[in-house]
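Exam revision sheet. Question 4 asks you to relate a sequence to its structure. Input first:
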Amino acid sequence: FHVYYTYFSILQMSIKSYLKNLLYQPRQLLSELQQLDQQQFQTAMKHLFHSKKEHLELGNIILNWDKTRERIFRSPGVNRTLFLVTLDKCFLALSALDCVDILSQVLRTSAVNYLQPDVIGSLPNLLLEDAFRNLSSLFKDLYDRTSASTRRALYGWMRQILQRSYNMSEFNESTSWVSAESLWILGRYMVHLPLEEILKISLNEMRLFISYDNATKQLDTVYDITPELAQALLARINSSGFDMRNTSTIYRQGCFAFSFMAALGLLVCFYDDLEQMEAAVARALLHQMIKCNQLRGFQAQVHELKSQLLNIAMQNQTLNDTLGSLSDAVVGLTSSQLESLSPEAVHSAIATLNQVSGWAKSQVMILSSKYLSYEKVLSFYHVSQMGALVTGVGTRSLHSMNPRELSQIIRGTTPQYLSDLSPAQQQGILRKLAASGDFSSSVKDIQGAFFKEVSLSSLWKQTGYNSSMLKEKELRSSQALYLYELLSKENHTVDLLSTGQLVKGVTCQLIESMDTDIFLNNFKFFEMNLHLLSPYQVNCLAWKFWKVSNASIPPFLLLALPSEYLEYVRGPLCVPFLERLGKAGMDLLNPSHHKRDAALQKVQECLNSSIADEYDVDLLGNLICHLPPAFLRGRMSPKAMAAALRQFKLCQELSHEQKTEIKYKLLQLYGSSNNWTAETTLDVGPFIALLSKEELNVLAEKFPDVILQTAKTIGAVSSAQELLSAVFESVSNGTGS
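Answer key, structure tokens:
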């Protein structure tokens, strides 16, 4: 019996070790999954995606399947393998609907998007209607997570299938394959329709589409539509029988009634038929244009249109009369115009003013003062009506409020604006509450970052704290230190650490004195909140782990120990070392310059001195931001660069030398910038700032709006003088024409 038991234990350990190694080697896992026959593949997919069992029985061997599944879906490399093998085998072995469900789970749970243009060609182009609709719906949900080139490729895939369903016997050059239903299926991808295709859409189909219940919701999300396409769609909608100037036109569907202007979504941002427009129509348009700040570009044109509509809307009327109907165009009003407003007008228009964003501080001060001069006594109701304008309320006014009303502000609908208040305003609220004698109940209701403004002396005076009430609060280290010590007298360690923020209050002395089992069982809470810990705390955790269980120490913690301990990272420890360090970020561990160099050398060793493909990019995470320039140039394949571009955009402090190598790799990947498409230019994003002025001028001439849009979002990589110069010349030329 003893021999059998020993053999059984060895076999169980071997199977666990084999599975663990497979998870650390996603390329090998891909190879093994590709070799499965259809029956084996079906079984594997069933256990992965549909089994609710906590344990998996293999004969007499029982595996913790819950933990294994969690590890699988947490690994970018394994997720990529599941995505690729699903494309390769699933549609042959399982029903199309099941495969779409699997793709959905893989793509939604992973932080990495595996949809690249070259992969789109592997998507099935013969699908039953339900499977195609479900897959299209998934791609619409992932729109913002995909690159511009991928969106173009996905549009091409959807168009191919939609065209196939169109009755080609009726096709001629003057008709379009685009139906109301295909517009709905395309969703946000409709912005990729060619202009000439839109102009051929049947008026009956356009009328049917705009009558759909979800048409408005869809048109509200076309953030990257161009003015030309929007105006073409508006023209077809207008020609289909709807009079867009008639504000009394009511569009009815079921038991609901909508003004037709509301049905146009973001298309209203490009309405250009202003000749002889009535003031009522201008006000209706302005009301709808409050959402135009969601557009990805073309804001200059939108602002110009709002200015023109503002002039029309105010014809023969005073600013006091029209303020509430001007929507967010009021942001364009000058300080002198705002000063001329009556308190009554501001009070009447507050429901509109509190929705507007983009105010200048001086505008907020003027409008707040006007509103408060009408109200006389400030109450919770009045503050809740002000929205973002609450930041213009003076500290003295806040301090003069009834404490009970202030408590309601903290508990009510305005906490989202509390963090925007100045430190003086926040302290005004807290000091009034502290002096009221009822601060204890109020402190418990303070949420988020505002709680960090509560002084230690105020905390000391209160009682009744518990760990659960701290879960929605952000703490300073000093607050966490006090509260952890206070609550540890009556609470278990797991209850305190699971709050998250209280880990800031764990001292090295507490870490060193922890029982081994308690430390190991609760280490996950430290690891989950690594970003909240100081380098000193991380160092203490590393020494504690090394002392109690050096054989199982998470490899990334070795970076917190002296450099020589990195020698323990080799072989099977390389993958977990890279994976965790890539997620946590080297900056969180704050290594010295010498130790950082040693760590990067170890990273290169673990990669076998090259970044071969997208699997290596997945593994590196944000470690890629720290790789030396020479390594990027000589050791990164073009295939890896295609996957790495998204990660490089997230890097905060790339050196000039690193940027030079990234530019070299981009030109190697995409060719001369003279031949780039609009999608390529968008995907390159902030790195266009690395191009020469001559190269930028060519792109600015071809894609002025793309260059302007990119220049506005640049921050982390560079704000190159050449880029700004190219943008200025492009805008000047556009204005001149």
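Marking note for examiners. The two ends are 92 Å apart (CA to CA).
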